[in-house]
Specification:
Low-confidence stretches: 1-6
Number of helices: 11
Number of strands: 0
Structural class: mainly alpha
Strand content: under 5%
Length: 301
């Protein structure tokens, strides 16, 4: 009897976690995830074909024929603007819709521990992010390999100067810096930390506004509105800078493999990681406090 009674809570907990994962199987979430993959691949295709016509491919794009480099590039996308929008959509159509529709109170009848409910949602969203990063990395690697086969890079010959002689010569190709597996794993772990921040901020928006549209707007808006502040002396104290530091976002890959501010010449990943972790934890606690309030149980007017 005791063994059976111990198994039941474990099975019930496992079913609850699985339910959170199934709750993400919605058209908006998977549509947004597919859109991120399509945009990421389209950016690579545009850069590759534009460079191939001139005989020179950007090193950050040419490196995508290596799977670790492609996985690292996928992590960059999910930890910057595209990932921010995707996270806001996922939280809004999940938690935001639950609060707006008034079903949060029904969930509290089955599980009154708000911290457990919130932790399950965070875990499910991070699992989605991890799976999407891996799939996107494979897609980028396969796409870059296909581009390399369909549009091979042939450096153009450069004629000698008007006044000098000599044979026609071709410029050497740009060096390709491929990532190691350790760098790829580090980028994915860093992206998950950034995703935790995005999820927590969107959770705060959902708890405050209890609206799908409001969650998306408040989940994305603050980081976008404050983005120009990275040009000011206050940049080292902004999460935008911390994200760039943790991921070591290279300048040559900006607007090709990510939409964000680039890392400074002297990135401080440890400080950035601590800053992100502290801010994400504070936002997660704030969301938990909002979700456990009586206001979250009342229907939206």
């Amino acid at each position: 009897m005791m063994a059976g009674s111990r198994r039941r809570p474990t099975r019930r907990e496992g079913a609850a976690w699985a339910g959170e994962l199934r709750a993400l199987w919605t058209a908006p979430v998977w549509g947004a995830t597919a859109a991120v993959m399509v945009v990421a691949l389209a950016l690579v295709g545009r850069s590759w074909m534009a460079g191939a016509s001139y005989g020179v491919i950007d090193p950050s794009v040419a490196a995508l024929t290596s799977l670790p480099s492609a996985l690292r590039a996928a992590a960059w996308q999910f930890a910057t603007l595209l990932g921010l929008v995707l996270t806001a959509v996922a939280v809004a159509t999940g938690l935001g819709q639950t609060l707006e529709g008034g079903t949060w109170s029904a969930l509290r009848l089955y599980e009154n521990r708000v911290g457990i409910l919130w932790a399950r949602k965070i875990g499910a969203l991070l699992a989605l992010s991890l799976a999407a990063q891996i799939v996107t990395g494979v897609v980028l690697w396969a796409g870059a390999s296909a581009f390399a086969w369909l549009w091979p890079v042939r450096p153009r010959a450069v004629p000698p100067g008007l006044g000098g002689g000599g044979a026609v010569h071709a410029p050497p190709p740009l060096p390709v810096e491929t990532a190691t597996w350790g760098q790829a794993v580090g980028a994915i772990v860093g992206a998950l930390l950034v995703q935790f921040l995005f999820i927590s901020l969107a959770g705060v928006a959902a708890a405050l506004l209890r609206s799908v549209i409001g969650t998306i707007a408040l989940g994305v808006g603050p980081l976008l509105v404050t983005a120009p502040l990275v040009m000011l002396p206050a940049a080292p104290f902004l999460p935008h800078r911390w994200i760039a530091d943790v991921l070591n976002l290279p300048s040559e890959a900006q607007y090709q493999l990510y939409f964000w501010n680039q890392a400074p010449p002297d990135p401080a990943p440890l400080i950035g990681g601590l800053g992100l972790a502290g801010l994400a934890a504070a936002a997660a606690v704030a969301a938990w406090a909002g979700l456990r309030s009586e206001r979250a149980l009342r229907p939206v007017d």
